[in-house]
Amino acid sequence: MIAALKRDVLEANLELVERGLVFDTFGNASGIDRELGLVVIKPSGVPYGELSPEDVAVVSLESGEHVEGLKPSSDTPTHLEIYRSFTTVGGVVHTHSACASSWAQAHRPIPCFGTTHADYFRGPVPCSRDLTAQETAGAYEKETGRVIVETFEALDPDELPGILVASHGVFTWGRDVSHAVLHAAVVEQIARMAKLSLELRPDLDQITPQLVDRHFLRKHGSNAYYGQANG
Known about the structure:
Layout: H1 2-18, E1 28-33, E2 38-41, E3 57-60, E4 66-68, H2 76-85, E5 91-95, H3 98-105, H4 115-118, H5 133-137, H6 140-151, E6 162-165, E7 169-174, H7 177-200, H8 209-220
Antiparallel strand pairs: 1-2, 1-5, 2-3, 3-4, 5-7, 6-7
């Protein structure tokens, strides 16, 4: 089973390149096998085009111990904090995609201006607070994960499958790693659309909660009707 997860994680990392969400060796995707308690993640600093299933790193969810493969991404502690706290998550992605990261650098959540956004996020894409000097000087990547979890104390990670980390970039997640990649692409798209909307109308208001709920729940609610049955 871990071999299949390795292939899925490799394909997800390559999809980040295909979608134009990463450049150089920045960014990473991971997946989890909760029964085995193992996380599979991109190795640190390896060009995407050189990756093989044998290269991807495997770490323990509980201890963070490196089990096999190349040295794991430096962002691994952030991924682990997300998996430990958000128990429905099966995959995590981190990018520095240009438009979404610009919102993160501006310390601004992405407002929900339209139904494209509401199809995937039941409200604004949140932005975390900045890490303190002490957090930055300490276990930086672990503290990044803790700040993400802190931001969601009153939010539902299943309804808002991503976050902008202030001054940094984007983390997204989903029920598996392929959905985490999709959500990274969605955040980049809606970030671009929100920027263009504000350029056209700086005083633009967000859409109504009723319209947000209608679009989100028709795809993700208990009575969802979007798409094909069993699709």
